[in-house]
Hints:
Layout (H helix, E strand, L loop, with lengths): L20 H13 L11 H8 L3 H13 L3 E4 L3 E4 L4 H22 L8 H15 L3 H17 L4 H17 L7 H19 L3 H23 L1
Antiparallel strand pairs: 1-2
Keywords: DNA-binding, Transcription, Transcription regulation
Protein name: GntR family transcriptional regulator
Organism: Amycolatopsis nalaikhensis
Amino acid sequence: MSVDASGLESERHLLERSGTAERVAAILRQYITDGVFAPGERLSEPVISSALGVSRNTLRESFQLLAHERLAVHELNRGVFVRELTTDDIEDLYVVRRATECGALRRAAELATVDLSGLERALADGRAAAAAEDWPSVGTASIHFHQALADLAGSERISATMRQVLAETRLFFVLNENTREFYEPFLDCHERILRDLRRGRFAAAEAALDRYLRDAEARLLELSA
């Protein structure tokens, strides 16, 4: 099954100033992060290059970048596919997530001010999606919430690392059935973390985040068993 690239034409304006492979990879990475391109789907060269208006060579370079980030795999004589992950991947990725996100909160605690607006927006989006019983969108809002957490550190390298890690994390969500049972607990955890941050209780927020990530890892491992 090939990916649905119909929405990519709307992304062409992002390439107007720089049609580089890095920018193409960033767009495709975002589509993976948002769950538009799912694990196991084929990334069709002709379809995507036409939708974005870029050359096959540029697209192939972007595929190489995604492969380096472990988001895509090339299969001989078959093409490039969104990667499907294993239980070992889950365990390792959550080690990285705990180190990155909790570390970002410790760094944020050292700053004079932090901007919580990204967290506020992501939580509001998640609540609205839950009210509409749009559970995949609750998952997307959760991804945005955790990116905003990492961004609190004020480090582009931490933010960039988190973008890659969260794109991989989204690949795990295919293990669930897009149910309320899976996604709704995210919202209460996010609310708890944000409440602590509003009060300047960074250590408490970090502890809540660590518990959240360990619980999420355990649930995904259970689903993948």
